[in-house]
Here is the input.
Amino acid sequence: MLEKIKHEGLKSWIEEVAGMCQPDEIYLCNGSREEYETLMAQMVDAGVAISLKERPHSFLFRSDPSDVARVEDRTYVSTTTKDDAGPINNWMAPDDLKEIMRKLYDGCMKGRTMYVIPFSMGPIGSPLAKIGIQVTDSAYATCNMHIMTRVGDKVLEALDTDGDFIPCLHSIGAPLEPGQEDSDWPCAPMEEKYISHFPEENLVWSYGSGYGGNALLGKKCLSLRLASPIARREGWLAEHMLILRLTSPEGRQYHIAGAFPSACGKTNLAMIQPTIPGWKAETIGDDIAWMQIHPDGRLHAINPETGFFGVAPGTSMGSNPVAVETLKENVIFTNCALTDNGDVWWEEMDGAPPAHAIDWKGRDWTPDSDEPAAHPNARFTAPAEQCPIISSDWENPEGVPIDIFIFGGRRATTVPLVHEAFDWDHGVFMGASASSEITAAIIVESGLGNVRRDPFAMKPFCGYNMGDYFQHWFEMGDKMGDKAPRIFYVNWFRKGEDGRWLWPGFGDNSRVLKWMCDRVDGKVGAMETPIGLMPEDGGLDMSGLSVPAEDMEELFAVDPQTWLAELPDIEDYFEQFGKHFPERLRAQLEGLKERLNNS
Ligand code: O2Y
Ligand code: MN
Here is the structure.
């Protein structure tokens, strides 16, 4: 089977891994539809996948209840010195971590097949694309990789005999003894899970989890935690950002890249349906952007993925009709509920809840049950090409030129609907100090306040010292000069004193996007405030939408005392970066303090 591989370095890495993990069989993926269907049929026969009668070519999986999400506590950035990984990554020295993991990998694929998945992040042949080889003992991960990345023979051809590849080793960590019955979702216990990154040698080792970001190694592991230090070395940006194209009624195109922490509606914004007449949106990506300065001097972005791995609960015709359409067929669902007629269901889906369903743990469920039917982190894996508003340029190897960066978070108070950075350095400060509210459960668990700092939405994904990451952003701005994108900060989630959302959100967010486009074109003025530039009275296109005047006032209210009260928290957060903290960021903090004190 491995004869097809002409790359000696690749062949010897696969042999080395096979020697350590000792699978019963090795299977080299060709990326074909037939291969995907065969693997799915095997999993249906084995009873680990359920074929959905009501949704063509779609399947439901249920994970082990202990394996339902990314595990930040078990995720490592392993560099020679702790300083290189920085203060907000878990760190262990490479030799120590490898010693622990080698013991776990020893014989871990016994009784199983080892799938070898050649994959490309980015269109094959794009100057921005990177080739990875994932080795895994999970057929589920293999099928997901088929949807999320470009897999198979064409990648091996591009690799040729001596191309660069990023080795990504994955095992669910559940060897099978002869005659031992398998479980539906084998995985290792939490204390044996390791999601490890070795940026100095461009290597990922993941062990013990079969779920999402822990197991689909092209996504967060390669495209963010490894790619971010590569991007720093090579002078580009690997970001946790959606990419969107907006076209005005006059036909002018704007490209927007947006960074938001999890649970802030990134996929919804990537698939926005503008409510302002004549404006059109197209999706390019919903999670990751790789951006390089093009010979034209502008920052061009590609989406390295080919699918969406989105949160199912909350997805409906109201919140995201485009996603609903995207999910009509060829979808892998994980941890959703199963209805009696053979479809999936989740909380806040359109229509009345079913009178009976099977919940994500495989138990009978009715609307009277105490627990939700779908896990809150239940997911869909869907091909991007099925998205009805996917841009014709979504696979353009040159990428699309970015006009606008948006940062944001979920804040019930303090932060206005939109403000614009005075300049690039101020925008970097906005990204670096970005924050979002966390759930009640996390507040209790961590004993922290309800606001978590999540710089550039990269807290869980930056593969090097975040202080150096801030500096890299400054340097990218210096290189682009006046061709750099404009930077904005949004908060769709501000609430009134009575707890009501003040802004309708969803398609009406296009009104805010339009203001940004008008700013880029110099068509509208802005009001200077201590925290940035904000729409003048009447600056936002509100035609056809009625939001009470008092609500609009509250949405844009900036209270200097509340902002001043928040600065010590930002300062404390920045403090941890020590000598890696850029002076230019300190200057921004001081500038903000001064403007607030003088206002
Ligand atoms: O829980 C997981 O494994 C998935 S996390 C995820 C998936 C798709 C896009 N973004 C995220 C994220 O956590 O940012
Ligand atoms: Mn994400």
